[in-house]
């Protein structure tokens, strides 16, 4: 009879542990998924911002006999522009290239309508994402315009401001959902642990009544919480990156775009899983250690 009771308790304990691990894994999977979405949303946001360019134009008022000298000066100016703080990348566009682009955009194959030299040479500048901010873009333009050889800088400020504001609005919503999932992770994992500890409340109180110290009682529960939290975190992370790998392979995108960000995400998800599990275990166990025996029947 005693053997059957022990086997029943062991099965119930295994079932309880499996339930807790699955709960932790599912919650951390959703939390990690939101983290991946946030990381990639930020990356694509920066990519789109880098496609918004400004055009810096060279002075075209020079004598034809000085053309070789002017080309050299333009090359020096181009190198200086590349080193400026707001510049992500810069592309030099010669007069010939500008004329070619104009023909393509107008759908013209002939040179009869205009001469090649009517288009000025320029530099197409992609700004760093932080300088697309409406509060900083004017500063970036001033810095570019201050370079000797640059006479004018033009940009579509309305388009830039609109894109910047829309991207930031989307990122804020995604960040808000990520915080919400973090709160849900805390609540759901805490509830799973509380139910597990609740089933052992009589064991906890019995150990205390026979003279066991609170630290002695807490230790095995904390060790178990660390193990369950770690197992749940690993399962959740494996499922997360398995799903993410399948998804990115289907759409033809790179799986790893920034190892450092993914590394910190793994640490965050793993740390949250273990920390919340341990904290919930300590709080729930401590509650029963402080309660009276009669309270155990009504908790």
TrEMBL record:
Q: Name one GO cellular component term.
A: plasma membrane
What UniProt keywords apply to this chain's record, in alphabetical order? Cell cycle, Cell division, Cell inner membrane, Cell membrane, Membrane, Transmembrane, Transmembrane helix
**Lineage of origin:** Bacteria, Pseudomonadati, Bacteroidota, Flavobacteriia, Flavobacteriales
Family note = Belongs to the ABC-4 integral membrane protein family. FtsX subfamily.
Segments crossing the lipid bilayer: 20-39, 170-193, 221-247, 262-289
Q: Name one GO biological process term.
A: cell division
Q: What is this protein called?
A: Cell division protein FtsX
Q: Which InterPro entries match?
A: ABC3_permease_C (IPR003838), FtsX (IPR004513), FtsX_ECD (IPR040690)
Record Gene3D superfamilies = 3.30.70.3040
- PANTHER family according to UniProt: CELL DIVISION PROTEIN FTSX
Where does the record say this protein resides?
A: Cell inner membrane; Cell membrane
The organism is Chryseobacterium soldanellicola
According to its UniProt entry, the function of this protein is described as: Required for cell division and gliding motility.
Membrane topology annotation: Multi-pass membrane protein
- Segments forming domain FtsX extracellular: 78-153
The chain positions of domain ABC3 transporter permease C-terminal read 177-292
């Amino acid at each position: 009879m005693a053997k059957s009771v022990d086997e029943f308790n062991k099965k119930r304990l295994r079932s309880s542990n499996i339930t807790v691990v699955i709960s932790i894994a599912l919650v951390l999977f959703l939390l990690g998924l939101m983290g991946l979405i946030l990381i990639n949303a930020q990356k694509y946001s920066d990519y789109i911002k880098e496609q918004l360019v400004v055009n810096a134009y060279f002075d075209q008022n020079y004598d034809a006999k000085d053309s070789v000298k002017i080309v050299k000066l333009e090359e020096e100016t181009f190198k200086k522009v590349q080193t400026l703080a707001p510049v992500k990348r810069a592309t030099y566009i010669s007069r010939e290239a500008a004329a070619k682009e104009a023909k393509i955009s107008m759908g013209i194959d002939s040179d009869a309508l205009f001469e090649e030299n009517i288009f000025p040479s320029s530099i197409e500048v992609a700004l760093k994402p932080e300088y697309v901010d409406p509060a900083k873009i004017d500063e970036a333009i001033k810095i570019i315009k201050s370079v000797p050889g640059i006479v004018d800088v033009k940009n579509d400020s309305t388009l830039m401001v609109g894109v910047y504001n829309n991207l930031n609005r989307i990122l804020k919503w995604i960040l808000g959902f990520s915080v919400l999932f973090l709160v849900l992770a805390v609540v759901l994992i805490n509830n799973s642990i509380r139910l597990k500890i609740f089933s052992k409340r009589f064991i906890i109180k019995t150990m205390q009544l026979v003279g066991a110290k609170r630290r002695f009682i807490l230790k095995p529960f904390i060790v178990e919480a660390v193990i369950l939290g770690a197992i749940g975190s690993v399962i959740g992370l494996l499922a997360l990156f398995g799903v993410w790998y399948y998804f990115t392979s289907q759409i033809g995108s790179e799986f790893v775009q920034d190892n450092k960000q993914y590394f910190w995400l793994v640490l965050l998800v793993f740390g949250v899983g273990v920390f919340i599990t341990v904290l919930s275990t300590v709080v729930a166990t401590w509650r029963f250690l402080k309660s009276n025996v009669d309270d155990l029947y009504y908790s």
